[in-house]
Amino acid sequence: MAKKAASPAAPRQDGPAPAGGGGPSRGRLFLVDDNPLTVSMLEQFFLRLGFEVAKSTDPAEALHAELPFVPEMVILDAMMPGMSGFEFAGVLKEALGPGLRIVMLTALRSGADRERALQGGVDIYLTKPIKPGELLEAVEEQLRAAREGRAGRVLEELARVLAGQGSPAEKVQAAAGLLAREGYTRP
Q1: In the chain, where are the structural domains located?
Q2: What is the homologous superfamily of the domain 28-149 according to CATH?
């Protein structure tokens, strides 16, 4: 078994505009698979659809990568050298919490592998080969769930900040800091 990795590097809050120009991103994805061809194909697929994409072919390096954005979702393989996708998912969930959605896209088809993934923090387990439309549907469903959960958590934190101690100006400053940390910025 691989050693437990350190916490992932903190992603930068700013980032490039999504490919295709102009409009808002459909989502921020981090692809992790040891097969460069798979990563490239997924990257091109999601970029064409207006997603922001970061990628890595090494899960241990991915934990320390400085990403150009805060990912909403990680799509990863199960079978990778050094650190399996099962281990990688567990480290991510422990470090970043349940708000990050994890999709495992793998050739492993056994019920035991599926159960191991789900118990280890994977939100949805998909098997290869998969039709592009099915993959897109699963990703969009998980992004909706992530955004609903994140929005609720942020609203609860804002309510605590605004009900807490301090002057109105201090509360507004603390609320603005919270929103900035969560990636909410002015248009």
Answers
A1: 28-149, 150-181
A2: Response regulator (3.40.50.2300)
Contact of 58 with 82, CB cutoff 8 Å: yes
- Tens of each residue's pLDDT in the chain, 187 residues: 333 344 444 443 333 344 444 567 899 999 999 999 999 999 999 999 999 999 999 999 999 999 998 899 999 999 999 999 999 999 988 888 778 899 999 999 999 999 999 999 999 999 999 999 999 999 999 998 888 876 667 777 788 888 888 899 898 888 888 777 776 655 4
How many angstroms separate the CA atoms of 5 and 80, rounded?
A: 15
Residue 166 to residue 172: CA distance in whole angstroms:
10
CA separation for the pair 62, 177 (Å, rounded): 27
Which stretches within the chain are classed as H helix? 36-48, 59-62, 85-96, 111-119, 132-163, 168-181
Amino acid at 43: E
